[in-house]
Amino acid sequence: MRNGGRPMLPPPMKPAPFHYHAPKTIEEAVATLARVAPDDGRVLAGGQSLVPTMAFRLARPRHLVDINGVAALARLAVEGEKLCIGACVRHAAFERPVAKGPLGELLTEVVHHIAHRPIRARGTFCGSIAHADPASEWCLVAAVLDAEMVARRARGEHVIAAKDFFDAIMTTALEDNELLTEVRLPLLSADTRFGFYEFNRRAGDFAIAMALVTYRLKDSKIAEPRVALGGVEAFPRRIANAEAALDGRAPNADAFAAAADAAAKAVDPLDDALNTADYRRGLVRTVVLRALERAAA
Ligand SMILES: Cc1cc2nc3c(=O)[nH]c(=O)nc-3n(C[C@H](O)[C@H](O)[C@H](O)COP(=O)(O)OP(=O)(O)OC[C@H]3O[C@@H](n4cnc5c(N)ncnc54)[C@H](O)[C@@H]3O)c2cc1C
């Protein structure tokens, strides 16, 4: 493969031929993307989702804009009350807490459910967000914490709230010519409790259903509850009825059961060859209950 956007001479290879671009700065990356996006140009981050689909020729991008050489995108920093995660920060970065307090612990708990170590060493947080698999753990984190996605194009950047970012299965508000440069997560106050529970049949598989909950305690009552589900619907989202069932109540079995029931009623689960909608709805009750129990433990 030759750099500079020239086609390679064709030794036999698994993916369809493509032009390879290796920008060194964010400006160069977005300028290249602006040029090649109309000709089926795609960003290459960790390659852990894109490359397998190219190998099977299910995806045949004509251009790849490889952002791995853009040093500025490896930034992982706390700024004010936000954790800023650059586009080249790998999953593995979260295997140890990257921020003080509950947020760092939450990310460390969740990351161990993503695939396997070699994939975590290469795949990126932002790549997962841009790819928007319904069962992506990072998309669930983004939904529950109301993350901010920073989208950059040649003409400037804008920030997209998580609730407006995920549109459908593997479909987001990002335009083809936009680079997701950074995702920002709010730091969590020291008294925030969290619980995560994922169900799948083998460790490392994508979740069939998973729940992530956070809340605080005020006068021994639940305050600011957040309940989100992933792997269940087309994209992860917060479940308002489940949150309402918790708000202001003592964190006990009755409140947790009410929230789990509310969540199971509120969802419109995916139905596929392996898992029916009814089966997933049943799982929703279980994963919400177990996530809440973990938060309270
Ligand atoms: C065997 C296996 C098991 C896996 N299990 C899980 C799992 O349990 N949970 C899970 O969440 N994931 C899982 N994955 C997917 C993995 O986490 C990927 O790393 C992730 O989905 C995509 O990140 P990436 O950096 O590899 O993106 P890439 O594969 O490089 O890109 C994916 C897509 O996102 C676009 N993209 C990437 N970065 C950007 C950006 N910054 N701006 C705009 N567009 C961008 C690309 O153009 C492409 O369309 C698994 C993968 C494999 C191969």
Topology record:
Blueprint lengths: L18 E3 L4 H11 L4 E4 L5 H6 L7 E4 L9 E4 L2 E5 L15 H10 L5 H6 L2 H7 L5 H8 L3 E6 L2 E6 H4 E3 L2 E2 L6 E8 L6 E7 L9 E10 L2 E10 L6 E2 L1 H7 L6 H14 L10 H20 L1
Parallel strand pairs: 1-3, 2-3
Antiparallel strand pairs: 4-5, 5-10, 6-7, 6-10, 8-9, 11-12, 12-13, 13-14
Helix pairs in contact: 5-6, 8-9, 9-10
The chain binds flavin-adenine dinucleotide.
The site of flavin-adenine dinucleotide has 29 residues, from strand 2, helix 2, helix 5, helix 6 and strand 10.
Mean pLDDT across all amino acids: 95
Beta percentage is 15-25%
Radius of gyration: 20 Å
Structural class: alpha+beta
Strand order of the largest sheet: 4-5-10-6-7
Query: The biggest beta sheet, please?
Result: 5 strands, antiparallel
Characterize the quaternary organization of these chains.
single chain
> In which range does the helix fraction lie?
25-40%
- Tally of alpha and pi helices: 10
Our measurement of the CA-to-CA distance between the termini, rounded to an integer number of angstroms, reads 53 Å
The tally of beta strands, per DSSP, is 14
